[in-house]
Amino acid sequence: MKVSAIITLKKDVLDPQGKVIHETLDGMGFNSVNEVRQGKYFEIDVKENDPKKAKDLVENMCKKLLANLVIENYKIIETQ
Amino acid sequence: MKSSVITFPGSNCDRDMDVALTKFGFKNKMVWHDDQELPKSDLIVLPGGFSYGDYLRCGSMASKSKIMHSVINFAKSGGLVMGICNGFQILVEAGLVPGVLLRNKYLQFICKNVHVKVDNKENTFFKNLDKQVLEFHIAHNEGNYFCTNDQLKEIEDNNQIAIYYCDQNGNTNDQINPNGSIKNIAGIFNKEKNVLGMMPHPERMIDESLSGEDGSIFFKNLLNNIK
For A66, which DSSP code? Predict the structure, then answer.
């Protein structure tokens, strides 16, 4: 089954790319933006059909490789 | 004295490091990342470059390569390990030194000479060094050192900050900080001070006619300390 994971920077970590995107949006006329934070999205197809096991597997991947827990948080979303 | 330089796919300062170590008297061996065992060494160097194309996060893939199991064991048993630039990024991803290296504050790749202040000389890397401020070269996109407040407290309590970005007189301040690093940190140790990670490249400053000699001072002193 496919499991998705979203990795985002923790709140107190500076995100210069998000800042630049925010400023660019501002320059384009999107003036109603408070803040932009950029993150990463993974779609992982695992050889596992049990949703809980699949989720646990991807969670382990997040902890060990996909996210650096000093600066990033992860969120797991089951897709199908 | 024997040294080993690990080459990862995408390393590009491995041969410069080999030239520098050899020039100052190390018997150096190049080791491929897919090897399992390290040759007998007094010093292991993780060189600069762009291992695995900086995919995911700089150094994250290389930190999981086969040879790193041996490097981690070597470090944990007290062996000397030095990571330069991408090598520093690999060390943080491997958990051998605390913190992470974020994208530079102003999103620019920085390539220039900088001065660094050596703060702690009670370790094999800087012991007996007769200079306080060294001129090294930096070339990186992700050198912005970051750690949590708890980590910073621990790092400071244990004197783990190795070098700071400074001006030529040794003053550290925001104006001289090239990449946004917390406290101008350019390099740090593990708790035991046998692992050093730093962004600047001493191997690029080993010839007066090409660059400068402060790298020579560093390597000569290091060799004497290991002997």
Answer: I
